[in-house]
Amino acid sequence: MDEISSKLATTSLSTGKRLLYIDILNFSASFFPVNEHWSFRKARWQVVDFVRFAKNANYDIKVFIDASIESEEAINKWKKRRETEVRNGERRFPQAMNTLLGDLFKRCGVEVCYSTEADNDDTLASHAHHDGASVLSRDRDFLRYKGRRYDIFLDFYVNKNKLVLNPRKDMHCTATKRDIITPAPAYTNSDPGIVTLSRHFYYRGTPSPLTHHFTNTHIVVRPLRQAYYSHLGLESSILETFPLLDGEVRWDEALVPPDSCMKDLLGEPKKAYEYFFKDMKRPQGVSDKEWSNHVYATYAVVFELCGLYMGVPLFDLLVAHAVHP
Known about the structure:
The chain is α/β, with parallel strands linked by helices and 325 residues long. Helix content is 39%, strand content 19%. It has two domains: 1-192, Rossmann fold (3-Layer(aba) Sandwich); 194-325, no CATH class.
């Protein structure tokens, strides 16, 4: 933790602090401007300011990030959104944004809660209910819990260097009602990595807006991921699923066995990147923004795996080794 983050993390609150639990991915655009994939340095300062403004307003915050295995229905909805991105040549937010947000809030001394045992909404709602915290989320599903004992805030703004919350006024809920989970579901404070590996599958979208020019970059770095599977001690093959564009969007599926062949590269992020992408060339007709975001994506898919292996935050690897085109 650097000096600025350390000072921020140790800033004492005055009496009367209020617990605020945040569904942080709801506010991704507040930290990562849409389509600016190299904005992780800007995002760091956005997070630093957000935490400072919260402390100034006497809020003691926790952020919650979904790390649970989604239902089949949720996966199907997610797939449709990813298909639209591939078809339209889009990628709104940077690859591994969830990981980066977790890293950045931890740097500021904020507790980051990865919901692994239950759905993130269920986890956050239960902990807020039992701890007497308020909830900051744009998700209407927080209205669905019966007997809830938490206030819901829809958004925030800053006034005189203090965080000000906008309460949710529309309390209409169409979702099926649920009971608050008791006891509250467990979470972990460490990024759990690729949670679906416990069920022997791995699915992601496309990290880049240029899937129609290149293949999915997750497929390019597959040998590095196989080395990571081997490092984890996995013995069975993993069903990997990624979208491609062959006239129409299709989902490529492959059974991928662990393989330690490239294990040494997991500890050498710069060498790993050069191995996979040193000969990459910019296609004609590609805009500066598209090319910039594609280059970011290539760094992110490599450094995400290296970071998991090395126990080093993705943010640190990007700052140390990624070169903006």
